[in-house]
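Model the whole thing, not chain by chain.
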Amino acid sequence: EADIYQTPRYLVIGTGKKITLECSQTMGHDKMYWYQQDPGMELHLIHYSYGVNSTEKGDLSSESTVSRIRTEHFPLTLESARPSHTSQYLCASSGGSWDTEAFFGQGTRLTVV
Amino acid sequence: SQQGEEDPQALSIQEGENATMNCSYKTSINNLQWYRQNSGRGLVHLILIRSNEREKHSGRLRVTLDTSKKSSSLLITASRAADTASYFCATDAGGAQKLVFGQGTRLTINP
């Protein structure tokens, strides 16, 4: 079983609020990822990190920001939530080699009202 | 799509039949992976095939890779109701160290 955890699982929040989605892994993985997934299924990469103090924007432009101060922790923050941010957010991590699998958390389903 | 196209987008078959899903990608790759997602949950890794491999098996799964056509296929043999899920291919986007997914195929196995 994968040791990667996302909290909260579900979040309903009002427009304009600041939120942080938490993602932690205990596998010592260097690479971590955030994906946004709408009900239509496709996963969009919004942020990724090679290691501590390294973050990159993904292929889908996002108003969210991330930080990687510790290897095990990769939180995603929205400074001012909007209804357009309503989606499922999936966090994943993988080991140092390029040919290793990624492990996914269970996701956070965010609804902005 | 970030990665390419998956075909078909949805597939419905009878239990016991074989299911084939196809994935195309845009860039050169070091490897291609297949994942499964049960409804509303995180993804689970199924199999990884390297760019110098043409075919790989794991239990009832068979994956092929054609780098000249930038395409891969996933075959699930003797399908079961528990195989009902969405299936995604993913690549490392040419060694960019980011994991990029296709659009996915929604597979339904009818009992």
